[in-house]
Every structure is written in structure tokens, then in C-alpha cells.
Amino acid sequence: xxxxxxxxxxxxxxxxxxxxxxxxxxxxxxxxxxxxxxxxxxxxxxxxxxxxxxxxxxxxxxxxxxxxxxxxxxxxxxxxxxxxxxxxxxxxxxxxxxxxxxxxxxxxxxxxxxxxxxxxxxxxxxxxxxxxxxxxxxxxxxxxxxxxxxxxxxxxxxxxxxxxxxxxxxxxxxxxxxxxxxxxxxxxxxxxxxxxxxxxxxxxxxxxxxxxxxxxxxxxxxxxxxxxxxxxxxxxxxxxxxxxxxxxxxxxxxxxxxxxxxxxxxxxxxxxxxxxxxxxxxxxxxxxxxxxxxxxxxxxxxxxxxxxxxxxxxxxxxxxxxxxxxxxxxxxxxxxxxxxxxxxxxxxxxxxxxxxxxxxxxxxxxxxxxxxxxxxxxxxxxxxxxxxxxxxxxxxxxxxxxxxxxxxxxxxxxxxxxxxxxxxxxxxxxxxxxxxxxxxxxxxxxxxxxxxxxxxxxxxxxxxxxxxxxxxxxxxxxxxxxxxxxxxxxxxxxxxxxxxxxxxxxxxxxxxxxxxxxxxxxxxxxxxxxxxxxxxxxxxxxxxxxxxxxxxxxxxxxxxxxxxxxxxxxxxxxxxxxxxxxxxxxxxxxxxxxxxxxxxxxxxxxxxxxxxxxxxxxxxxxxxxxxxxxxxxxxxxxxxxxxxxxxxxxxxxxxxxxxxxxxxxxxxxxxxxxxxxxxxxxxxxxxxxxxxxxxxxxxxxxxxxxxxxxxxxxxxxxxxxxxxxxxxxxxxxxxxxxxxxxxxxxxxxxxxxxxxxxxxxxxxxxxxxxxxxxxxxxxxxxxxxxxxxxxxxxxxxxxxxxxxxxxxxxxxxxxxxxxxxxxxxxxxxxxxxxxxxxxxxxxxxxxxxxxxxxxxxxxxxxxxxxxxxxxxxxxxxxxxxxxxxxxxxxxxxxxxxxxxxxxxxxxxxxxxxxxxxxxxxxxxxxxxxxxxxxxxxx
Length: 938
Prior knowledge:
64% of the residues lie in helices and 5% in strands. It has 47 helices and seven strands. Strands 2-3-4-1-5 form a five-stranded parallel beta sheet, with helices on both faces. Strands 6-7 form a two-stranded antiparallel sheet. Helix 35 runs antiparallel to helix 36 (710-727). The protein starts with 13 loop residues before the first helix and ends with a helix. 50% of the residues are buried.
């Protein structure tokens, strides 16, 4: 791993370096670089001194405060000694006045003029200034580079002020200094550049890491910036501490890494060099852990008077950062951690106690922060009280995930008082269905139900809410149903809560039971809720009744949608109406009403715009992803799906839809292994959603069918069909049916395929599901083709393509067009075949399905030899014999080296041939190059 601070690459300060080079190469000039300790001033000056533009100049350089001779003008003496050979070569041109340097630089005595006689101390001092100036400017064009001039001795400081006020003709001066404190380099009229270096931004940190390690993950760069605040010296130490290679670096490892010893040692030294008052405010900042003003720092430090001087001292040392407007924070999170670790336990508890008291006395107390300080101070009663207040605030502001996190943290703390345990557990149960539930939280609630002493009412309520989460987010329908039934036994007269649990089971897509059983639960929820006046409950039941009708594609359901309230007054009713629209969008998307689904999602997002609802947001995002995929917006769909997977629990049911979308996208890109992996993962997480399961089955059948493993495809198709058959809602088999029928026909099972289609058409009869009707038409076309009626089959398939295109579902439309073209070609209807092949090829190409487009293009050329070809000239636009030979070996997954060994070519030549073949074939990469694609090329 490159050492970031001295890496061979230099990034993120390019503009500043360019400005310094410009100034230094145009004497006389003065440039000043300011910045807090650790931001990289020294590295910038090192880069300047070594810059090629200054190669023809004498660069006198030294660092103040770290010189070898602790005496007057010590940095300047070090700079002179660093270029002894240069000075000796020009000594003949020095004036007699330079003899005064014999005492300062005795190593030069052999070739310096004699020391002046009878000169008093002040005269000698002034002559030293003039002599140093003469040497610096008398050896040719030169640059004086001095680092950390705020640490310089008084004589050096005075010399630099004079040099800046009256620069030497052939000399440029570049100095760096701390950006605060009493020894700031004076802003003079003649200063050509005054640069202020700040800490690295997150973007600069990523640029630096990319240059040092090769491309690194964005979350790793963000974690590095967050932990170090972009302070270069801390960034260097942290990265050296976590690993030696880019592969070893991960955001989790970076976050959990201990404070590097070099940082601990540096912080300990800095603390020792500051006064007691400054040490106390640094400790106070570390305890507070967030920006604070002077009064807060003083109060937490336990200071009896003003602390402005102590804060200034701490800022100058780099232990605190001045954020402006009277706010200060630890120099970096790493510095804060190091300081905090040095605090003795009793002092640390006392400081946290003072922090809690100070914050709670404020006009707008930050409850969660007060609770944290109270806990670390050991004040359990105050911690419990303020945690409850923080949860109330989070719920009121719609921050359900934060409320759940606060409650879960408290419930995991063994010191939580018994009196608070039950109420906190019940509150966590209430909030969990509205946030994104994680596996650890679900395990905690189950542990509480199993091991904690709870009242019957509390136990029943927790069970109902846990059942809702298990059904809606974990996909464990039977386990969730059992929890709701057990909760019902404990709830007694709390009918409203029981109804909420029952209504969770009422949507047809849930579980493997027939739709009729889901509707029975809905009826039971309505019976239980009779006499209730809870507007939120009644809205939830009405929502699920309407959503259930739309899920089974009831054509009469549309009439009731207009009755939904447009601007609900109650926040709870507003959430239920938003949920209704999200459920409706999901349902009509499975039915094939894609533009309508878009409108419903837009309405839902408007309703919850000011009310953060993570669970509802995730549901809407999953449906929107499916719409993007279906409607042909493939350019961004994979990226959006992967982004969603980072926001939800990767082991929860909310991850099923983005995985499903990725599977279909990868199938369209002819990446069968990746597609199958995504489909399998989606299926594993979709136990609570039959339509997602059916789509995952369809994808798995499609992959095996494309790989010519028809037996595996047939088995999977039967499993998927049985799932839909058991649920008794054939609308959800719209994706599966064409692949199932084609697999059966490939195995010669025409009778079974006809019987399946008859069952399917009966199941969707009277349903308002245009995608199901298009699927039935496609299946009819394939069966008609299998009977040898190619022209009639082509007409049916063309009708299917038009039906899919009207939805729009472009990939399936292109698939139907391609099949229709094949039928027309076989029937001798050449013009119709050309038209359908052309339409299919254009649609595939617009989606980015390169392999499918190529297949159609080749079929089109066979059907119409006059069709223009794509590719490069040479062998027309076809593959040359060598390119074809190489491509066929590449299709066998041989590496460039292995191909080269067989054909006696270099790996580079093989790479060129493969690249040309891919370009001529219109393929994006060699991963989609297969033997089938090359089989009919002569």
C-alpha cells in the first residue's frame, strides 16, 4: 500500500501546487500557505521544491522547529547548509559583508571572507540579515521554501518580514504557517499568492484513494473522510493501520479500526505540550462529540472562568478545529477517540454528567444526545427518561427508523430498569411495521416474548406487530399468522389491534393459501372491527379490500378508486391511503396497466412527501423498479436496483424485487449465471409474495430453456405453475406461461401444453389483466406453430407482439415479433418476415439486448440478403477467418493466453482479434459470446 502522505502520486492539491509554481517561477515574489496542522502544508511544499519547473533554480528549503542547530536564524542556517556546494561555487562573488556568516555557519569558514572587526552585537545582527539575503539571492535564480514559520525564532521571523516587505530581485519566497494564532505571516501588499489549505473534502479523499490504491469503493472513501475529517496526517495513519492492499480495505474494517498508535502518540505529545486549561477544553470537545460553543466547552470542562485563551491554544495545536461562528470540534474523529481514551474513568463520567446537565438546560434540548451522555455518566434514571423523550420526538417527526433504533439500543442494555422494559418493548413493536425491520430487531422481539415477564396485553400487542413484520417484511407468512393468532388470545377486548393483525393476512398475494382464504381473513377483520371508530383501522381495512380486488384483476374495482380521499385530514388515514395507492400500483403493474401504476405511485409519494415512511418508500421503490424494467428503461434499472439493495435488509423480503429486476435485466443481457443467481436469491426471499415467486420461477425457466436444459426448465415450470394453481390467481402466471409452453413444446408435450393453456385462459377469463391476455395470445401462437399452421401462427404471434407493445412491454413484444417473423419466413411470406425481424431487432437494440439484436439481424440477412450489414471493412462486414477462429475459441471460455498457445499468436494479438469480432457482431463483451451465435457462420 502506498503511504498516502508520501505517495508517488500527488492529487487533490493540483490547483494550489500550480499556483505556487507560477509564483515561485516569477521572482521577486512572495507566497504564503496557511492551514491547520495536519492538512498537508508540508507535503505541498515538498512537491513544490521537487517540481520540474524549478529544476534550474536553487531551492533553499528548511522546516522551522525541527532544525539541527537550535540557535538564532536556525531555519535559515539549515537552508544554507542544505546547498553548501552551490554556495561554495558562487563564493567568489560574495561581498566582504558575508564574512559575518562565519559564526552562524562555521562549516563555510574556509571560503567566506574574514569576520568584520570591531562590530557591536546589533551591527553584527543587521549584517547577518544582509549577508543571508545576499547568499540566498546571489547564487542565481532561487526560491526560499520555509515550512511552519509560526514556529520560527524571533530573528528568523523578523528577517522574513523584511524580505517579504522588500523582496530580492532574483528570489521567490514561499512559506507555510498555521492558519490561526498570534504568529500568522503578515498579509503584505507585495504577496503574490495567499493560499488557505483546508481539510480534504470527501471527493478529494476518494480521488486520493483511487490514485493510491486503484479504484476504491465509494463507501470506503466516505468512511475514511468521516473518520478523519479529511485531515491528511490522520488519513495517512489510519490507512497504514488497516491493511497493506486495496483488497484488504473495507468500510466496515475502517470504521471498526482502533486508533493508530502513531495518532495516539502524536495526540499524547500535543496534549502534553498544551496548558491544563487547553487540555480540559480538548477533553470536553471529545466528550461532547459534536460542534460546541465556548460556553458549552467551558461548562463540560468544569472551568470557572473564560476559556477563550485555552480554546485558541488548542486550535493552534490542531487538537480543536474552528468551524466558524463560535463553534469548535475535535481536530478529527480520530483525535477525539485518542483524547477520549486518555481520560480516566471518573473524570470521563463527570464530564458526561456535566454535558447532560448543560444540554438539558438549553432552550431546545436534544433528547437523544442528552440520553447518550446520561448513560455514559451512569445516570440510569435520566438516561431512561430522555430516551423516552427522544423516541417521542422521533415518532412525532416521522423518523420511525430512529425511534426503532433508540428503543432497540435501550432494550439491549442490561441496565434498563424493569419498569421501562415492557413499555419500550411495546413501543418497538408498534414502530417496527412502519420502518424497515432488520433481522436482529426481529430476533430481539422474539427473545423478549420468549424470556421476559410481560403482561398479557403487552405480549398480545407485541405478537400482533411481530406477526405483521414477519408477513410483510420477512416473508414468513405462517410464522406471522401464528404470532397473530397467539396475540389474539392475549388481547382480550382489544378488537381494533386484533383487526389490524388479521387485515395483514388479507391481501391475496400473501402466503400459499388460496385467494379465498385471504379474503376470509379480510371478512373476519371486518367483523372484529364492527363498532370501532378508529379511522386509521377502518381506512386500513378499506384499503386492503380494494387492493385485494385489484390483485385478482376484478374489473369492477376501478369504480371504487375514485372514492379514495384526496387530502386525508388524519396523518394515520393519510398513511393508509398512501399504502392503498402503493398496493394498487403493485397490483395493476402485475396486471399490465403500467402507466396507471406510475400515476398511483406518484399519488402515493405526494401523500407521504412530508412523512418519512421507510417501509412504504421501499414498497414504492420496488414497484417502480419493476415498471422501469417492464417499460424498457434498462439504461438505469440495474444501477437503481443495486442502490435499493443497499437501503433494505439484504435478507428481508424487501430485497426480493430489486433482485428479481436484476435477474430479468441480466437475462436480457445474456448473463445466465448472474441471472440465475439473482432469480434464486429473489425466490428465496419472496415466500410472502406469490407474484414475485411466479416471476422468479419464470426467470429460472427462461435461463434453463436458453441453456437447452429443457428437463430442468420443465421441472421448475411445474413448480411455478403449481404455486399459481394453489393460490388460484392465474393472472400472476403471465410471465411464466410462454416459457412453460415453449418448454413443453420443446419436449414434444403438445397435449399437456394445450391443456395448460386452456386452464390458464379459464383462470384469466373475465379478468382485467392485459398482460395475461397478451401472454395467452403468445401461447396460442406457439401452439399453432407446433401444429404446422405457420401463417396462422404468425398472425397470432404478431397480435401478441402488438398487445405487448401497447402495454408497453417491449422485450416481450420483440420476443413475439421474432417468433412471428420466423413463422412468416417458414410460410414464405418474405416481406412480413422482414418487417417483423426488423421490428424485433430495433426493439432489442433500443433496450441494449445486444445478443438478441444480433440474432435477429442474422435471421434478417438470411431472409433478405440485401439487408445492410454492420461491421468493419476488410472481409466485407463479416468476420475474417482468423477472427472467426479466435472467436470460436473465446466462446469456449479460453483465455487470451490459451488461445494464443493454440494458434501461435501473442495474447495481445488475440485480444485485438476478439475485440474486432465483438465489434462486428455488435456484442458488448466476450461474456455473451457463445458457440450458438457462431454456429451458422461459414
